[in-house]
Write a structure and sequence with these properties.
By secondary structure, this protein is α/β, with parallel strands linked by helices. 34% of the residues lie in helices and 24% in strands. It folds into two domains: 5-103 and 293-307, 2-Layer Sandwich (ornithine cyclodeaminase, domain 1); 109-291, NAD(P)-binding Rossmann-like Domain (Rossmann fold), CATH 3.40.50.
């Protein structure tokens, strides 16, 4: 049996952010995913393995290696390598090996724009992207497609030169004052490596939707306690965000918020349309935590596009 390897070049141009958001939303209408994680470390090098099984949809195993010193090799090598193994739900047979970079790219921003589609005001005109890396570039494209009425997209970064380069490449504006930019934005999407908050609640105006992506470890967060107190909180998955990522785990441990303050995840949205934004004046805060079940949903979409 020939098992295909699906690369970025094979499928990237066939995908759209709306398709990915639809696939993630539809995936949550199936049975709840069973998840499993295994992490191995050797000094600064690590290997992460995440698995998901959704009845009716299939199984996926995502394996990632992280070798930071590869950047100093001659010639430089990628610091992160990943592959997703997609299995058939009925037979357990391997359907495909998929480039992990392809899955991660579309899953990460697709996850966020689905959250914004469910929670942001429909008349949003100004988007602020906090960060200027690879994920930030995908976010500009994703939000521009899913929110075609946006009139202004601004980019803020601690590295002003990076912000200017990304803004020039994506035909956006550069924000030099984060406080001012947050006060003007209808949607804020943040993809930084911040260990301490950069988005302060006092700067965020009523009606804003805040999309938090960057924090993925217990010692990381992007938003301060005030924003979490004044906003209505939502997550993509309770299982992967509440206790495993500092964005929520730290304020939970400090008594700033409680688990009941997390109002819904995607499984709740799939069951009811009444759990999202209630008024145009409220602040909604969405934590994008990812998870192997989202990798599975997106990998299935990639496989369908490749097969077609």
């Amino acid at each position: 049996m020939h098992i295909p390897f699906i690369s970025i070049e094979d499928v990237d141009a066939k995908l759209s952010w709306s398709d990915v958001a639809d696939a993630i939303y539809a995936g949550h209408q199936n049975a709840k995913a069973r998840l499993g994680d295994l992490a191995l470390e050797r000094g600064e090098q690590s290997m992460l393995n995440r698995a998901a099984w959704i009845d009716g949809l299939g199984l996926a195993l995502k394996s990632v290696t992280i070798y930071p010193s590869n950047a100093q090799r001659t010639p430089p090598m990628p610091t992160i390598e990943a592959v997703v193994v997609l299995f058939d739900d009925e037979t357990g047979a391997i359907k495909a090996l998929i480039d992990g970079q392809l899955v991660t790219k579309w899953k990460t921003a697709g996850d966020s724009v689905l959250g914004a589609r469910l929670l942001a005001r429909k008349n949003a005109k100004c988007l602020l992207v906090v960060g200027s890396g690879i994920v930030a570039a995908s976010l500009v494209d994703a939000y521009r497609e899913v929110f075609p009425e946006l009139e202004t997209i601004k980019i803020w970064s601690r590295n002003l030169e990076n912000a200017k380069a990304l803004a020039d490449h994506k035909n956006c504006e550069v924000a030099t004052d984060l406080a001012v930019a947050l006060g003007e934005a209808d949607i804020v999407t943040s993809a930084t490596m911040a260990r301490s908050p950069v988005i302060l609640g006092e700067w965020v105006q009523a009606g804003t939707h805040v999309d938090l992506i960057g924090a993925f470890r217990l010692d990381m967060r992007e938003a301060d306690d005030e924003l979490l107190r004044k906003g209505r909180l939502f997550v993509d998955s309770r299982e992967t965000t509440i206790h495993d990522i500092g964005e929520l785990a730290i304020p939970l441990a400090d008594g700033v918020i409680s688990e009941s303050d997390v109002l819904a995840d995607y499984y709740d949205f799939a069951q009811s349309k009444d759990v999202g934004r209630k008024t145009d004046d409220e602040i909604t805060v969405f934590k994008n935590g990812g998870g192997a079940h989202l990798d599975l949903m997106v990998a299935n979409l990639i496989y369908e596009k490749w097969s077609a």
